[in-house]
Amino acid sequence: MNLSVIITAGGIGKRFSSEVPKQFLSLMGTPVLMRTLNSFFNWNPMNEIILTLPTEWISYWEKLAKKHDFKIPHRIVDGGKERYHSIKNALDICSGDFVMIHDGVRPLVDKGTLNRCLNALKKNKAVVPYIELKDSIRELNRDNSISRDRKNYVSVQTPQCFDLKLIQKAYQGEYLDIFTDDASVAENSGMEIYLVKGNEENLKITTPIDFKIAESLIKK
Amino acid sequence: MNLSVIITAGGIGKRFSSEVPKQFLSLMGTPVLMRTLNSFFNWNPMNEIILTLPTEWISYWEKLAKKHDFKIPHRIVDGGKERYHSIKNALDICSGDFVMIHDGVRPLVDKGTLNRCLNALKKNKAVVPYIELKDSIRELNRDNSISRDRKNYVSVQTPQCFDLKLIQKAYQGEYLDIFTDDASVAENSGMEIYLVKGNEENLKITTPIDFKIAESLIKK
Q1: Three-state SS for A31?
Q2: Gap between the Cα atoms of A151 and B82, Å rounded
Q3: Least crowded by CB within 10 Å, which of A110, B28, B108, B132?
Q4: DSSP B95
Q5: How far is A63 from chain B (nearest CA, A)?
Q6: Over the Cα atoms of chain A, what is R_g?
Q7: Residue A12: which pLDDT band, with cuts at 50, 70 and 90?
Q8: CB burial of residue B46 (10 Å; 0-12, 13-18, 19+)
């Protein structure tokens, strides 16, 4: 079964107080995005890797790759206006039977998670890794907030994994505001989402504190 | 306005692979629970502090306090069977007008969060700190999972803060399975929950990885 991997690094990091988007920052000597590509390449070097980048940062990435003598084969796709359009562009050039779509700022996905995703793809068209919530959650209403029992909810990570043809088709639709991740696009097109266990270290580096946390997890 | 602080350390830590409950483990030289009490004492030494502990660990705590020459004044309440009953017992002996109920395993609550809670208590009967969700969430159904727009949800922390009389009254009711935190008990009795910004470092130490993360945040 041929697998394509899309790594999305389209964000320009509004939440991060840094000029350079966080995916390019050095995490213990290696830029975050290179660590993310390494995680997939070290798991299986045969998968094709497609990287979406903001147009204005492509040449920066290429120089960074040269500087770090970064050799992992990958194709670059110009990021669209929204994450949705980047993914759509990337899906168009995938050649696998299945695709894993992964956040560029999640360098710490482990082989266990990737194996669980791959195994589940044998019987399911849409697979997503999850972890349990530690904090309670509340739903926000116009004037109020409502307790939700956290046992009924999980937190989902990436890679979000799909049958290529079906997710390509799902991405033919119009962009909707409710699309917070690829699974929500898939679900909207009628696919059922199968959940597998993720790994706790697989955090999304969103703030400077996450950066610090990722460092400590790598040192471990 | 007189404030009571309840620190709950009733858990025996099923998720943590350690003989000694995690609230007693040393975090950079100081047991987690002492760090938590310190956070409140350093913010305002005038508040009364009530600590709920599992019966079988009270003498352990007392020896630990002696060993660390720990002088922060606090009263100990015997933890009940469930967290619910511990809190109920602790509420019975509070003497403040307001009460903050805080997880013993959240040592990194900061003064900003505590000040925002206190200020909000001047106009609200129930106040809870929140942070935004970083990951997408899904609701679990019997056979399926459903995307929920994470913009409509927040993650809540502690201290959860209340008008003492009203929360005492709320805790007079029967224990229900939907009570995942104090705010859900308050809400069930008809109170509205007001949200204030928490601090990202205020994590609940639940797993060995959280422990590692807390260490790195303290070093920062």
Answers
A1: strand
A2: 17
A3: B28
A4: -
A5: 30
A6: 17
A7: low
A8: exposed
- Tallying the residues shown for chain B, one arrives at 220
8 Å CB contact between A99 and A118? no
Residue B159's nearest CA partner among B112, B206, B92 is: B112
pLDDT on residue A55: 87
Out of A137, A144, A193, the one facing B145 most closely (by C-beta) is A193
What confidence tens digit (pLDDT) does each residue in A92-143 have? 999 999 999 999 999 999 999 999 999 999 999 999 999 999 999 999 987 7
Of A171, A170, A173, give the one whose Cα is nearest residue A191. Answer: A170
CA distance B202 to chain A (A): 11
CA distance B44 to chain A (A): 26
Q: Which residues, in sequence order, are bridge partners of residue A129?
A: A196
- B 17-46: CB under 8 A from A: none
CA distance A95 to A31: 27
Residue position matching structure tokens 């791959």: A118
Catalogue all structural domains in chain B, each as residue range(s) with its CATH number: 3-219 (3.90.550.10)
DSSP B160: E
Say yes or no: B218 contacts chain A, CB-CB below 8 A.
no
